[in-house]
Protein: Cytochrome P450 family 4 subfamily F member 8
Organism: Homo sapiens
Amino acid sequence: MSLLSLSWLGLRPVAASPWLLLLVVGASWLLARILAWTYAFYHNGRRLRCFPQPRKQNWFLGHLGLEAQ
């Protein structure tokens, strides 16, 4: 059973304070929100790729009046 303890690594049992638990919960919540936002952005982009892209206007030809409307 002594092999399962972490004392041989130099780690001692630390009482988890409420502030540390709150910090861990807050960091986990923030990470989950960032990952959810990233996935929603990616998923929305994947859905919008099925639409055809409009023809890109050339800035130079548009100023010369040569761009077809």
